[in-house]
What we know:
Blueprint: H1 39-42, H2 45-112, H3 116-119
Amino acid sequence: xxxxxxxxxxxxxxxxxxxxxxxxxxxxxxxxxxxxxxxxxxxxxxxxxxxxxxxxxxxxxxxxxxxxxxxxxxxxxxxxxxxxxxxxxxxxxxxxxxxxxxxxxxxxxxxxxxxxxxxx
Length: 120
């Protein structure tokens, strides 16, 4: 039996498609750095997506906090306005009560025969 020999892989120099320039005086080239490209596109796609998901989560949290703060302010305004309305209603009722008391007293004075003209 003959042994089957597998070909031994030859290591290639790191260049495009494993090709190496035969000219020793030429430096190997690398991809150009695109400075005109925006900074967002210079990073890898998954890094950008990770960054945007983080940004979206932060924005969502910010909006929730703002809504809570706004709801708290609105609740305090409601309580204050209700208190003002209640105080105004009490003041109005007191005035009506005083007015009614004055009218009743005037009625009783007239009944007794004492009028403004007489008592001055």
